[in-house]
Amino acid sequence: xxxxxxSLPSAASGSTEWVLEAENVHxxxxxxxxxxxxxxxxxxxxxxxxxxxxxxxxSTFLRTINLLERPDGGTIRLCGQRMGYKEGSGRxxxxxxxxxxxxxxxxxxxxxxxxxxxxxxxLENITTAPIKVLGVDRATALEEGRRLLxxxxxxxxxxxxxxxxxxxxxxxxxxxxxxALHPKxxxxxxxxxxxxxxxxxxxxDVMLDLSSGGMTMIVVTHEIGFARKAADRAVFIxxxxxxxxxxxxxxxxxxxxxxxxRFLSKVLHS
Length: 270
Fold this sequence. Notes:
The chain is of the alpha/beta class. The protein contains 9 helices and 12 strands.
């Protein structure tokens, strides 16, 4: 069990390349203390799966990483750079909204709902941000967009609009869209929760391919089978704190926390 005392675990090696360093992160919504000092490090190429009951702070924590929700306390660093702030010469200055938006491009996020532009084709959904935000020329963006559609198993759907296709296809387009900005970290917030059961495996297969390809990922999910296959590390969050974390072999088969054990027992037998 890893206590969440606001301190970060030490690196196993001084050469570890940390993509994410979140330390003692707090978040309030009104009088509700949702995150109570969460700390987490994620190394380059690592896949961390977060599980836990609804309302425990999992999604809120993801949203603080890319500053969709500004934390009320603590620090978040992406590849060594503090999110939301500029540091130097002994001073810390809060960044402008435009500068935060620039930082956010390094973090791809896939939501429970697909959030695709309904009036655009699959290929247009993928290429719009690279063209308009990164200034990529149209021909290059189209070539990359087609490559990403092939990567997510939809090479023949570039002209399809989001509304008619099944949800599994929409979520795979959403994954391709997030990848189009070449993020350093991918966040997945219950990416299969809005899908019909027969569509879930298609999306999970894409995510497994990404994990095996070395993509750094944090995944909030109730798909325990996926977690056991893909995760380098599993984390149980409840009540705004990290209750337990560990490698899948021990975390899922022999958790040290009674609370983790009860939760997994219910999930695995539901």
